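Give me the fold.
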Amino acid sequence: MTETLTADAVVVGSGVIGSAVALELARGGRSVLVLDKAGGPGHGSTSASSAVIRFMYSTFEGVATAWESKFCWERWAEHLGLPGFEPLADPPALSRFHRTGMLHLDVPAVPREHSIDLLRAAGVPFEELDADELVARFPHLDGGAYWPNKPVSDDAFWEETPARLGAVHTPDAGFMDDPRLAADNLAYAARLHGARTAYRAEVTGVERRGEVWHLALADGRRVEAAVVVNAAGPWSGAFNAMAGVGEEFTVGVRPLRQEVHQVKQPAGYSGEESYGPGVFDLDLGTYMRPGPAQTWVIGGTEPECDGFEWLDDPDAVDAHVSNGRYEAQVTRAARRLPELRVPNRPSGVVGVYDVADDWTPIYDRTDAPGFYVAMGTSGNSFKNAPLAGCFLAAIVDAVEGGSDHDLDPVTFVGEHTGLKIDLSAYSRKRPINADSTCTVLG
């Protein structure tokens, strides 16, 4: 006899976003079932995240979401609601927030005045550094302005420049030290609130009959729920297509292969008891942050000259770090940090971004009743996962309660900051964000 699993809401995907959605839906009193074809929470793209917690985006809503989320990461156990369940029979290890600050180096593609206007509007502390102040405060950095991005194989990449750049420093930025563990923490908290999880549970079919969504799993089980949330990461577009959902979307999504590399920090960059700042460097096409044990994590900001690795099928991704991508990204970092050594053997991880056309997430309902999406997270949304869960719960509550989120968008008010966030900014029907850098910066 076929086993049928039932719930008020089923969340497809148990990465950091899906796990956050499950927690908030369960907190709201719904019975929740989470499905993931991997063996546990955070085993997909989340595990390859650099887990940077920063606040600079191209929209007020992006900045406000990141700033409100920061307080959740700082007070992680409290956000998860663990103190209310103490004593825990099996207390989990928790991912931890490390405050480092972040330097956003000047670049023509991101006018400084626009950025600081958004930071100021959201109440994010920042300081502006001119070229002299930048290198005086952070002497490990080369202060040259090298825009536009150039291939590292091009002699022009190494040419000296008389131009210099400044930066915007946000001292409250940082990183979470284990992104997969953060997803696991959210899944653990969701289970404390009654959510159930089914791993190695691949969805092979989905259709709506009457008021109920019916999902078929590869192992023969069936799932029934009135509400479905698509949080399937780079598989989200394919899952929408499987469900016959998405014709009304004005924003598309596409899987993009990416790599994050790890080397050793330059000597003296971080102190014995404190970290040096992360660096967001669109000028050279890279971002970087310190890590435990003097590690240095390096990602790319999608320089067009390095090419893009778009995928038709995320399952077909080459999971091995490539020499070409490693050399490009780490060499860019070394141009900014002349003392950084570039080992011959690459070290790092491969992930797949779920990239929206404007690199801004889609948190929304759909035209299919009961079908919701948390998708298009574009490699820049780990930091916003706590709020993404809250956003979806608020949208589900409103729409299932009879509101029209398209005509009367939900406004979310941050518990910690009091900021009002208009969730139409994350609409599936929004105009393309013309201010987006169309990079991981958002």
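The CA atoms of residues 85 and 192 lie 8 Å apart.
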